[in-house]
Amino acid sequence: MIAFAERAFADATAARRSFLATLVVLTLLRAWFAAALPFTSDEAYFLMWGRNPDWGFYDHPPMVGWWLAVLDAISGHRFVLRLPALLAPPLIAAIGWQLLRRRGEALAWSGATLLLMVPLSAWNVAITTDIPLMLFSGLTVALYLRARRTGRMQDFLWTGLALGGALLSKYFAGLLAIAIFVDTMRRPDRRSLAGLGWVIAGSLPAAAIQIAWNAQHCWPNVMFNLVNRHGDAGLSWRTPLLYLLSVVYVLTPAVAWRLATGPRPGEPGGAAHGTPGEAAHDERSTLRWLALVPLAIFAALSLVKTIGLHWLASFVLPAVLWFVLSTGARSRAAAIATAGLIAAAHWLLIGTLAMLPTETFRSWSNYQGLVMTVHGDELARALAPWRGRYAIASDGYSPAVTIGYALGEHVLVFGPGTSHARHDDILTDFRELEGRDILIVRRRDYSPADYEPYFDRVTVRDIEIRGAVFHLIEGHGFRYPVYRDRVLDAVRQRYYALPRWLPSGACYFCDRYFPERSCHR
After folding, report:
1. CA angle 201–89–36, rounded 5-degree value
2. Residue 28 to residues 22, 32, 33, 86, 87: CA-CA distances in angstroms?
3. How many whole angstroms separate alpha carbon 195 and alpha carbon 146?
4. pLDDT band with cut points at 50, 70 and 90 for residue 216
5. Cα–chain center distance at 128
6. Which has more pLDDT, 281 or 433?
7. Which of 12, 122, 196, 510 could pair with 343 in a Cys bridge, judged by C-beta atoms 3.0 to 4.6 Å apart?
8. Angle at which helices 253-261 and 316-326 cross, to 10°
């Protein structure tokens, strides 16, 4: 396999043909995934953003919501909505190729192929906040390298604007900003420090948008990312080990190992390879810092927190580029061959699972959620008798947005929910539901007594779809004052108890339900 890969990338012509063949196969497979695989709850959640566009949303910045607002205006089909995710890997590979081609055509096509084949690019088609983050982060890396090379202040400004796009996509872009700062401070001079100032200036408008919106909306991004979602945090030996495995998986073993150990003697950048050009050496060093700084910060966080695979996605580009520039042809061929085998295993697994009957997984503990996701159309038909007469609800954000996507309408979250269910607090005004009938769809067991205080009358029934039982609670005559005092006040104390160090400002939740009470601790 390695010998075959070496031949496939032996010269510029062979490497270009291999890249194009990989691109065609990969795009066709991922296009099938994008059209065939069911829309996930996270994707439905972000689509809800797009259908209610704003300058910000509860847990993340607004970029993916803006994109989905445009795409949804074209078509609500999942293939159309997933187009950015489908196009992201080829675009990132193109960025990599453009950056590498000055070092040789064969090397550039090899690097672009490896960027296509890394696991998250090879199979993922979900449209999430990570997609715009990956694209804007890749653009930031490319522009920053150009700015370092040219020294022109306008290039540093463009870097800042791209970084601003990343900041409007997801706050992990802040780790890339830290990496740029660290790289600048390695060898500070007047030019690099002035350039850093222009990077900051370019990213300030994006930061200002987020600060302004958060200040007028209970600081939800701050509360979610720094306060409310970390109840399970604590020292553990498992989470660092899991993080290590995640890095090896996301980067592929060869890239992760070489990034940690450095280039071998005799390879580009190695001790016995001769004296490299200063510009090439500086570029390699910059790329390594841009990859290692965010990964090191995640490593520190992994001592107390589980680090998600997707958290690492936007830092793959600098790691792969450094690897390609710091290794020989055989090492690059081995990395591409390994990535190809991993990708093929994913395609085979996903394809097999997609073709299996849903009932195959009836013993799975989350089978109801699977049926709700895969067969939302059947659930929507089953709920037809209640539509229009009842406000449809569920007990958590995931089932609410999944049902909402199937129904094509907003489904509210009834009950306390979790830290991930809070964006519905912005969309739903329970005061307007006083006296209404509400249908609550549940996947899990419950007690009718949990709902009786909030309605004049409660009736219950079950429906079954492909062996999955869904519980329907018909609440007749919603009692808003009781719900406010028992549920909404508990939510206020749990999720809207702002720390004293956050300035007071408008708060949709407290201003709406508790104007007489403070949301500060």
Report:
1. 125
2. 10, 6, 9, 10, 12
3. 12
4. very high
5. 5
6. 433
7. 122
8. 70
Residue 521 and residue 499 in contact, taking contact as beta carbons nearer than 8 Å: yes
CA separation for the pair 287, 320 (Å, rounded):
9
Of the candidates 146, 117, 152, the residue with the CA atom closest to the CA atom of residue 9: 117
318 and 287 Cβ atoms separated by less than 8 Å:
yes
pLDDT tens digits, one per residue of 403-442: 999 999 999 999 998 887 689 999 999 999 999 999 999 9
Nearest to 369 by CA among 393, 347, 392, 400: 400
- 8 A C-beta contact, residue 451 and residue 440: yes
462, β-bridge pairs: 471
Who contacts 349 (Cβ-Cβ below 8 Å, separation ≥6)?
A: none
Query: Do residues 292 and 247 make contact, with C-beta atoms less than 8 angstroms apart?
Result: no
Q: Give CA–CA dist 312/504, Å, rounded.
A: 34
Query: Which tokens go with 491?
Result: 């939510």
Question: What number is the average pLDDT over the span 390-411?
Answer: 95
Is the model's pLDDT at 153 over the cut of 90?
yes
The pair of structure tokens assigned to 25 is 């196969």
Instruction: State both tokens at 349.
Output: 């697994």
Task: Provide the pLDDT for residue 136.
Answer: 98
The phi, psi pair for 498, rounded to 5°, reads: -65, 135
DSSP code of residue 393: E
**Mean pLDDT for the chain?**
92
Spatial separation of the C-alpha atoms in residues 478 and 480, rounded to whole Å: 6
Residue 143, C-beta contacts closer than 8 angstroms, at least 6 positions apart? 155, 158, 159, 162
- Phi/psi at 108 (5° precision): -65, -45
Distance CA 144, CA 140 (A): 6
pTM over 0.90: yes
Give the ranges where 151-233 is alpha helix by DSSP (H). Answer: 153-167, 173-186, 190-215, 220-222
- What DSSP string runs through 308-320? PGGGGGGGHHHHH
Closest Cα to residue 174, out of 212, 217, 207?
Answer: 207
**Look-up of token digits 């209404």:** 436
Q: How far is the CA of 219 from the CAs of 58, 225, 506, in angstroms? A: 9, 10, 9
In the predicted structure, residue 92 carries a pLDDT above the cut 80: yes
* d(C-alpha 513, C-alpha 485), whole Å: 10
Single-letter amino acid, residue 368: Q
- DSSP single-letter state for residue 10: S
Task: Determine the Cα–Cα distance for residues 48 and 44; give it in Å rounded to an integer.
Answer: 6
